[in-house]
Each structure stands twice: as structure tokens, then as C-alpha cells.
From TrEMBL:
Biological classification of the source: Eukaryota, Viridiplantae, Streptophyta, Embryophyta, Tracheophyta
Chief location: cytoplasm
InterPro entries associated with the record: eFR1_2_sf, eRF1_2, eRF1_3, eRF1_Pelota-like_N, Pelota/DOM34_N, Pelota_N, Ribosomal_eL30-like_sf, TF_pelota
SMART domains: eRF1_1
Residue ranges of coiled coil: none
Originating organism: Triticum aestivum (Wheat)
Chain ranges of the eRF1/Pelota-like N-terminal domain: 1-127
Gene: LOC123075100
UniProt name for this protein: Protein pelota homolog
Family listed: Belongs to the eukaryotic release factor 1 family. Pelota subfamily.
Amino acid sequence: MKLVGKSLARDGPGSVKLLPEVDDDLWDAYNLIAAGDSVEAVTVRKITRSGGRDSERVKLTLEVAVESTDYDKDGSVLRVRGKNLSKNEHVQIGQYHTLEIELRRPFLLRKEAWDWPALDTIRKSCDETAANADLAVLLMQEDLAHLFLVGRSVTATRARVEVPIPRKHGSGAVAAYDTALKDFFQRVLAAFVHHVDFGLVQCVVIASPGFTKDQFRDYMLLEATRRGELRAITEHKARFVLAPAPSGYPHSLKDVLAAPSVMSLIKDMRAAQEVPALQEFYAMIAKDSARACYGPKHVEVAHERLAIQTLLLTDTWFRNPDVAARRKCVDLAESVKKVGGNVRVFSSMHVSGNQLEQLTGIAAVLRFPMPDLDDIEM
């Protein structure tokens, strides 16, 4: 995200002008913009003329008082709905309008109070020195492949390829198998070429059970030497890494990202910081369950006793439309930090964030055992 301008102070009113440049920036904007804020941006509105017979689309600059937001990761657009605050000949003050915030289109965000999570999001999103560690993961098995693009905050499924592949038993079966496998690899390669931009992607992980990953890599490199339009694959073949995976289904992505060989490559990514923290939580449950807890009530009681060593929570807690509930969550995170604890905020668009969401979205690793938490209703 590019920071075009700002005028704000912590816990006070102010504004920032931001320019989203990649999909992760739109996700950060989604986490920044909350009900009660106002957003100003260039937009298009359908205007009816001549007694309602004719209409045209007019480009306007409007500011809306935010009531709701919706992030479409597949379409790379963030929709912000609210009542118009700007004087305009086409849209009355108080009329509802939906702004569409897209890549490379600036917007101005105003808040009455810039709290810690909002300022931290801007700091991380606008850090020009941060490593560009975008990752592509091709998860495969014979007959099925999924292509993921893993960014700083967003994991997006870009392609799914499925081709029935017959068994090798029977006369002529080997030839049929080879033909089907080649067709499968051709389709996977076409999807890969369409979606992976080596100007952004710094590492490609090809993962599968067995030798499917090795077979596909060899096929892809051979095709790249034969076809001039695939020259980029040959030029960047050092960026390809092979890794084991339980299957070609999406749920295996978490195992691939947790593999030591992959973790060492993506150590600067936010996802790589989230995975070990979640692994520590699960390891503590297995080793000493009294030193781990989850659920807002249990975490709150643990903090009252200054027991939290690491607080884990998803960013959905900071998007709560209830201002009081959001403020309570912000205060909890800041309080844990003040007493020497660690706070890990997980993106709900990453696989690790999805795992944490299944445990209410908030959990903690404790400094000392608290077996009595089991007696408290969640």
C-alpha cells in the first residue's frame, strides 16, 4: 500500500490517503475501514435524465459514512456502503451509495479515533522496506491440482484442475494412462502460466504425495525449453521448490506451509510468523493442556491473572461493528503487551487464521497452568 498522505494522532481523529497496489492492500483496507468511519473516493453512479427515460453513468467524487463493507477477493474489489456526506448535484446528502475501492485507485479514510490495530495495519501495509515474499503453491495429486497465491495477508485459490486418469491395468491401459496424465499436466501448466507473475511471485512450491510433483516439474521445464513463450519459467527455475503433501486437496495447504523447507523460504511473510505460533498452541494442548486456553471468557480470566504468555486472535475481532466490543478487544491486546506478553494477529484469509477461527478466533498460551479454567463456562 502506498501512503499518499496522513494527518492523524493515536487515539485521536484524523485521516489518511492510501493507494492499494496489490490484493493484500485491499484486505488491509477492509480491516482498516469500520462502521462509523467515512471514506472518500472517485466513483461511478447511474443517473436518470429526461423524465426517467434516459440514463448515463457519471464519474463523481463522494464521501460516505460507512455502514458496511464487503471484500471480494476473487474480483479484487472492496465495496463500502453508506450514506453520502458530499454536496453533489447528482446524489443528495443522506442518499445511500456503494463505493468500489479497487487496485491503483486512491481513497481517503477518516476516523474519529485511530487505535493501535489501525495504526499497526497502516505501518505494516505501507512498509516499503518489507520483503516482497509472495508465494505460489501448486498442490497436486494424480487427477487433481489446486493453485494458490499466498500473499502477506490473503491466500487466494486461483485455479482448480481435475482430469480423470485411468489405472494402468489391462491391455492398452498404460497408453491411456500416459495420455490422460499428459492432458492433466497440460491443463495445470496452462493455469500456472495464466496466474503466476514472476514479477510478483518470489517462490513457487510444487507439492504432492509420491512423485507427481517431480513428474510435473520435469514436464514443465521440458515444455519451457521447447516453447519460447514459456521462457520465464526457465529463467526463474531456481525459484521452484518441491515439497511433500498429504493430498492435492486445499486442506493440505497448511501442512505444506508448515514444512521446514518451505518455512525457511517464507520466513519474512506474515503467514510464516502465524504458523509457528499456532503450532506452539497445539503443542501446548498436547503436552500440558492446563497451559493453553481458547474462547473469549477463558482468555479474559487468564489475563485477569496475568497468565497470558502469547495471545492469538484473528483480525475478525478488530472488525466487530460493535464499537464497545472492538474497543474491549483492542484494550485486551494492548494490556497483554504491557505486561510482557506477545500478541499474534492472524489473517482470517490464511489457512492458519481459518484454523484459529474454528476455536472461536481467540486463544492463548499461558505462563503457568490454570486447570480451573475448565470449570468456567465458555
